[in-house]
Every structure is written in structure tokens, then in C-alpha cells.
Amino acid sequence: MRLVAVCACTVGIAHTYLAKKAIEKECARRGIDCKVEAQGGLGIENELTQDEVDGADVVLHAIDVGIEGDDRFEGMRGRGRFLKVGTAEVISDASVAVDQAVALAEAAAEVETSGGVRQGIFANMGRDLLNAFNTGVSYFIPVVVIGGVFLAFSLASGQAGSSGMEVTNPFMQNLNLIGMAGISMMIPVLAAYIAYSIAGKPALAPGFVLGYLVNNPVPVGETNVSTGFLGAMIMAVVTGYFVRWMKTWRTNDTVRTIMPILIIPILTSLVLGLLYIYVLAGPLSVVMVWLTDVLGSLQGGSAVALGLVIGLMTAFDMGGPVNKTASTFTMALMTTGVYAPNGMFRVAVAVPPIACGIASLVARTKFDDADRQMGVSAIFMGCIGITEGAIPFAVKDLGRTLPGIMIGSAVGAGLAALQGIECYVPHGGFIVALATSNIPLFCLDIVIGALIGAAVLVAMKPRLQER
């Protein structure tokens, strides 16, 4: 049995390599020959060649985002020798994923004489959509960081005026221009890479074009409307599946060579662009205005309730799909000028690893030397907003770690909601404090949430001798 795999998580830091290690370990235990490619934050490592993919018995994708070079696996999909799961599933129990892959290979072998079973364009739609949104967010984040950081620095030098913060320093005005360029690109990038995850490179160009279209006013009756992130996400999904359908068209070799660079981009942009302008723009603008008004007006108990939910989701899977759902929600609101939910989330992301680190250093009778070494690195990761720093503690003792970090994150996010703290960049931890509306309170909320989370962890942990 020959298995090849690709691992890729949203951030490209922890889950990618934990999943890779889990697959390799499980295959070694069973005597299965395997090669696992990792697509992390630094790019592709241990890259699979086309010959290695074609020569395998089965392909396993443990991914939460769209990947580079996905066209390499089209043949294996067509032969029914392709399995896609999430990184969290593999990390939790790699044997289940490998069992499924082996069973798939055996089933495909029985129908190989018929050329395999080709799946429809909507096969695995739920997982494909989750991966697509995570892909869009992963490419979207650096662009938002550029825009948010430059805008935060430039506006911090301004003075409050009748029309908001007025920047007069010429150098800071130039920083403001750079920041606005990043902000202007956010929605097109989000739409383009959601579509790309679903249908590959041919969907990239129309994704950019339609993302730009929904982010700018278009005439609907006597008014001009812009639907922002909501329109971008909907049009990106429609674009992805429209392009995926076009790729199934039977054409001669001459036409097929120009399909991805001419026919698909032009036809997709024309059909879906007109569909948006004449059919979707009006209804979507109504929904967008309502959503922005409701979330922008949250105060007191309503805001705190939202903060508690965001905090619980953030810590629940420490960088996994639930965490990324909360992240997507808050960053989408940023594009409409609503920054408070992002402030809640950016406090919450820092709490779990810092809480675990503090607990391991304080309760020396309940954590061993290895835990304390992990604790130092976890605190550092928390300070720079990487929630995955808590994963090693959760792997060793999930039942006691998860309640502590969820409570801590919920408290931190709830405090940020109560205080109305806004964060203007899509990252968390102390390193983004300057890009918040209240630097002292933002930092204090992280500290309070981490201390409460650590206290719960210490209270629940038994002594080493009692385990």
C-alpha cells in the first residue's frame, strides 16, 4: 500500500505539522509506505511530484484550506482514490482517517476497470465550503494587517476633527495612503481565494473582479449600493462552482487550451457580474445594512453576551475550524467599520497559551519539567496572538485544560465587550495593543482572562503523585 498525503491548516503553524506527524506515525505502525507534504506558513515542504501522486494507491488530504498545486490530484479524484479530512480529525485520531483511506483504495480497486467513479461538482460541498472560507481568510489576513497597521499608525498621529481623525503630517498621510490601499484590496482578495479554493486557478481572476465589484457602489434603481463582505462571500462561492462546472465541459484540444485564460474568466465575469448587478445587489444591501446596524448598536448585556460566545469559540479548538469561524465573523465585520467584535476576539486568542504557561510555572507540584518548558514557549506564543500554543497542554490533558482556557477566553472577551474595546488589525496579543482603541484596558483584559484561566487549570489539575 502506497499512501501520499498533504497537510495544511489555516495559519500554517501548528496543526499542519501535528497532522503530518500523526499520519506518518500511523502509517509506520501499519507498515504503509507514505509520503506527506506539508504546506505551512513557510511554503511547501516535502513536495509530492506528479509521478508520486499518480503512483499512489490513495491520496489523503488533511487540510483546512485550499492548497497550492491542487491540480496534481485531479486524476486520483476521478479514479475515486482521494479522501479529504480536516487536520483536527487527523490529530485527534489518525487511525480513523487512515482506515477510511485504505477502504477507499480497496473499493476503488474493484471498479478500476471502469475508470473509477467521477464525483459531481457538488460532492463534499460542506467540507469544500469550510476549506474555501478558511483559504480566503488565510490570504485575507496579511492584506488586512498591512491596511490596519498603517492606518492605525497614521491615525494615531492625527487630531480629532469634525470629520474624524485628521492627519496633517505629510509622512503620516503617505502611510495612510498605503493603509487605504490594503483596506481596498481586502474584499477582492477574500473573494478571489474563496473561489480559488473551490475551482482552482481559473476562478482566481473572476474572483478578484467580482470581489472588486461587490465592494464598490453599483446602481440599483435610484441609489448606489455596496454589499461588502457578504456579497463577496456569496459571489465567491457562486464563482467557484460556476467555474468548476465549466471545467467539466467537453471541448476539443484547441478550445481547452484557452479555456482557463480566456473563456472561463470572461464568461464567468460577464454572467455573474450581470447576475449580481441586476438580481442580487439590492437584496444583499438590505441584509448588509441590517446586520451592520444590529452589531454596531450592541451595548451592555448584549455586547457582553456576544463577547462570551466569541471567547468560548476562540478557545474551543485552539486555532481549528470553530476558532476560525469566529475569526472570519469578526474580520468580515471589520470591512463594514465594526471593530468591537474583533477587539473581543483579539483578546481571546491570547488567553489560552498564556493561561497554560502561567499555570505550568506556578503549580510546580502539578506540572512536570517538560510542561514548564512548554509553558515558556506558550506564553511567548500567546503574547504574539497564536492560540495554538495551548495545544500541547490540551493533548496531554484535554478534560482539564479545555474548561480552563475556555473560561479564561470568555472572561477576557466579555470584558473587552463591556469596555467597548476596538481592534483595527486582524491579529491578537500584546503586539497589536497600539492598534486598539484603549491600550491599557486591552492588555489588562488579556492578563485578567489568562489569570482566571490559569486559576481554573490549577484548581482542576491533580498533583503529579495523584495521577
How do you describe this structure in short?
With 467 residues, this protein is α/β, with parallel strands linked by helices. The protein has helices at residues 14-30, 50-54, 74-78, 87-92, 94-110, 125-156, 170-199, 204-214, 228-246, 253-296, 300-316, 321-334, 340-348, 351-362, 369-383, 391-396, 398-419, 439-460, and strands at residues 2-8, 33-40, 43-45, 58-63, 82-85, 159-161, 164-166, 218-220, 223-225. One of its GO terms (cellular component) is plasma membrane.
Q: Which sheet architecture does the biggest sheet show?
A: 5 strands, mixed
What ranges have pLDDT less than 50 throughout 5 or more consecutive residues? Answer: 113-117
Which radius of gyration do the C-alpha atoms yield?
A: 24 Å
Strand order of the largest sheet: 3-2-1-4-5
Number of domains: 3
What coarse outline follows from CA principal-axis ratios?
flat
Helix content: 55-70%
Class per helix and strand makeup? alpha/beta
Number of strands: 9
Mean of pLDDT: 84
SS summary, helix count: 18
Oligomer: single chain
Helix and strand pattern: EHEEHEHEHHHEEHHEEHHHHHHHHHH
Query: What percent of residues are in strands?
Result: 5-15%
